[in-house]
Amino acid sequence: MADSDDDWRVTISVSGQPQAGQAQQQDSLRQVEEDIRGRVGRGIAVGAGNAQIFLYAGTETAARDAERIALDVLAGHGFAAEPALHRWHPIEERWENPDVPMPQTEAERKAEHQRLADAETAESLATGVAQWEVRVELGSHRHAVALARTLESQGLPVIRRWKFLLVGANNEDDARELAERIRQEAPPDAAVMAEQAGVGWSFPPS
User: Fold this and answer.
1) What distance in Å separates the CA atoms of residue 18 and residue 50, rounded to the nearest whole number?
2) Which residue range(s) make up the domain with 153?
3) Does residue 179 form part of some domain?
4) 91-120 as b/e, with b when 16 or more CB fall inside 10 Å?
5) Are strands 94-96 and 80-89 parallel, antiparallel or unpaired?
6) Could you give the number of structural domains in the chain?
7) Per the domain annotation, does 102 fall within a domain?
8) 48-72, pLDDT tens digit by residue?
């Protein structure tokens, strides 16, 4: 498989040292993390979770090299380890097995993007929580109130907090279309951004 300028992640699940207590194991894992970081170099990002080590690289070759180094360090500290390699799919926005092919044609990219949009919409409707939102910052409280009333009169669910508005959307495509629509209604100095939802408010409203 050819390398590309992409995002790769190695997740190493670590089994504890049989003769060590929990506190000692945690200290050992912290030392392992530092040892791995020192050996793999600055081109690899190293993180640690609960009994896991994460290695982030820009190519498959670099990820596999870092994996070998990490497994060697873990073995030296008496840990058993199980690695798994994944590649980030930027359209579907999730980590996938390297065997899952990246879309190569425009038609494949559109199909993969549509699958993501459909999944986001299904999640929004199933949970009643918007997966995306349009965030609007107005120059004054008066402008925020006026724009909120205009959008609400169009049937849009709006949350207003001082000079800020949030308008929910089912998926990224809907959010970007909604952001463009709001820009046409908002004053010229308003900041309008489509982004993944960071608040759990009911959408659509009952």
Assistant:
1) 17
2) 130-196
3) yes
4) beeebeeeeeeebeeeeeeeebbeebbeeb
5) antiparallel
6) 2
7) no
8) 877 899 999 999 999 999 999 999 9
